[in-house]
Design a protein that fits this description.
Shape: globular
Distance between the termini: 39 Å
Structural class: alpha/beta
Strand content: 5-15%
Radius of gyration: 18 Å
Number of helices: 12
Largest sheet: 9 strands, mixed
Bound molecules: SN-glycerol-3-phosphate, calcium ion
Length: 282
């Protein structure tokens, strides 16, 4: 039964097949080239640009709320009262984070792409993202630093369940959960073996252990997300042979997109989903 489920799921999330390869456009932190990462402006734009998936990096607050922010620390992207908007997310409450905004850093950093409307963007809760995009987006959610946030996986599954995106009767192919943490994904797999999980890979895997490593990953995951610099044709071929989809991160220029496509990947993370759509159309 699980084998049939995984075959169906792999087809929906872009596994290579003999017939036709459908490459998945995964908006990395939204269309984060053109709008501040992990804001509604960024995800709205990603969908306008034709993204198949919108990404969320998950952090947990001191009082257990799941919020979407890439860094463990607020310092790079949050602005507001220092007592609320500096330091580690996990040391702040959700009420404190509601006093922060995450748009003005982008305007200062990228004046050529700045827009006045970005100022005041809130730190989104995952709940608010699932509400806003219900029925019109697919969610590619990363558990960030889960070892520092015990219970993150359980909270995530409970939230997805409340939105009808996990558990009995949940549709297939609406959510992928990714992590650099194998332990986090194994925990999720133990909680619900039907979840689509992708293990992020930052370092090269030694050639003589590659097949064993990939088949071990296949026991709990449907795919791998290799860093662009560790991607090569052999990794793609061996991952496919093991039944894993391959979604490298993060590819932002058209030459690199074309190169990665020639390697046979099933999709990729990009800050520029509109550009990837144009490359795919060629
Ligand atoms: O999740 C793929 C990619 O986003 C991993 O890197 O640091 O951008 O979360 P990072
Ligand atoms: Ca990520």
């Amino acid at each position: 039964m699980r084998v049939l489920f995984v075959i169906a799921l792999a087809a929906m999330i872009g596994a290579a097949s003999g017939a036709q390869r459908v490459v998945q456009v995964i908006a990395h932190r939204g269309a984060s080239w053109d709008a501040p990462e992990h804001t509604f402006a960024s995800w709205d734009l990603a969908l306008d640009q034709g993204a198949d998936w919108i990404e969320q990096d998950l952090q947990m607050t001191r009082d257990g709320a799941l919020v979407v922010l890439h860094d463990d620390s607020l310092d790079r992207t949050a602005r507001g009262p220092a007592a609320d908007c500096r330091g580690l997310v996990r040391e702040r409450t959700l009420a404190a984070l509601r006093r922060c905004e995450v748009g003005s850093w982008f305007n200062a950093e990228f004046p050529q792409r700045a827009q006045a409307r970005f100022v005041g963007a809130v730190i989104p809760t995952l709940d608010s993202v699932l509400v806003r995009y219900a029925g019109r987006a697919r969610f590619y959610i990363e558990t960030k630093s889960p070892e520092a946030a015990p219970g993150m996986e359980d909270s995530l599954l409970a939230l997805l369940g409340r939105h009808g995106l996990a558990g009995a009767g949940a549709p297939t192919g609406r959510v992928i959960i990714q992590s650099f943490s194998r332990a986090s994904l194994e925990r999720l797999h133990a909680l619900d073996s039907t979840l689509a999980l992708v293990l992020l890979i930052e370092d090269p895997i030694a050639p003589d252990t590659l097949d064993a490593a990939l088949s071990a990953i296949r026991r709990f995951a449907v795919g791998i997300g290799p860093k662009r610099s560790v991607l090569n044709a052999r990794l793609v071929a061996r991952a496919h042979a093991a039944g894993l989809v391959v979604h490298p991160y993060t590819v932002n220029d058209s030459a690199a997109m074309a190169f990665v496509l020639r390697l046979g990947v099933d999709g990729m993370f990009t800050d520029r989903p509109g550009l990837l759509r144009r490359v795919l159309a060629r």
